[in-house]
Backbone:
């Protein structure tokens, strides 16, 4: 782990009161510093869902709802071997599909979404995953968050910021937003984070949230953002 700035004291830290009074230019400057420190801390940060194509990432992201990435990665090899393309998902036997993805939870709804996804891709997109927010968001089981994951990681298009539980929690703790609604959090982050970094920003916060800034007991003493975080406990 990268060592945090030396001699971070209560007097010198960013307090919640200071964060509330922070101007937009100052907040943007602090966001840039947060971004650079996390890039140095997690040079390996990337999408945790294993995939080899836009379709595989799209399917994996749908399965990841209310499920860990680790569990999804355990399920998808057999899933993609049995259903390698949109046509196979469109024609899937629901009982078989449900059984393969059962351990990801909510498997009946997810199976229905995957079959509908395959059918929509076949009928409207020649079996290929589209690369626009509008087209992706119109697909069964696909919302803005899922579309952002696919656009950013499969197509290299920074259309928006993925806001999952880690990104939402850390963005609030860091004083970059005061919102709880993912759409509003995303809007606040898009105004602060450079667009070229929208995709990597989410990965960095997810890595940091899993390893250091945990929900119940954040390890503030080991955090490279200690002096930049109004929620830090020192």
Residues:
């Amino acid at each position: 782990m990268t060592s945090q700035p030396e001699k971070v004291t209560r007097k010198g830290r960013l307090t919640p009161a200071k964060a509330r009074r922070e101007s937009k230019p100052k907040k943007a400057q602090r966001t840039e510093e947060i971004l650079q420190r996390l890039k140095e801390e997690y040079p390996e940060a990337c999408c945790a869902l294993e995939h080899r194509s836009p379709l595989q990432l799209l399917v994996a992201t749908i399965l990841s709802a209310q499920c860990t990435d680790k569990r999804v990665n355990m399920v998808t090899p057999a899933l993609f071997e049995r259903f390698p393309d949109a046509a196979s998902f469109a024609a899937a036997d629901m009982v078989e599909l449900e059984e393969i993805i059962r351990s990801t939870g909510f498997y009946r709804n997810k199976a229905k979404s995957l079959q509908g996804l395959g059918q929509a891709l076949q009928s409207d997109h020649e079996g290929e995953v589209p690369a626009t927010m509008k087209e992706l968001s119109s697909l069964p089981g696909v919302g803005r968050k899922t579309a952002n994951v696919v656009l950013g990681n499969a197509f290299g298009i920074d259309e928006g910021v993925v806001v999952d539980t880690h990104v939402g929690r850390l963005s609030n703790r860091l004083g970059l937003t005061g919102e709880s609604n993912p759409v509003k959090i995303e809007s606040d982050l898009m105004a602060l984070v450079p667009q070229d970094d929208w995709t990597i920003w989410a990965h960095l916060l997810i890595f940091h949230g899993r390893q250091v800034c945990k929900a119940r007991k954040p390890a503030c003493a080991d955090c490279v953002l200690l002096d930049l975080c109004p929620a830090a406990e020192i």
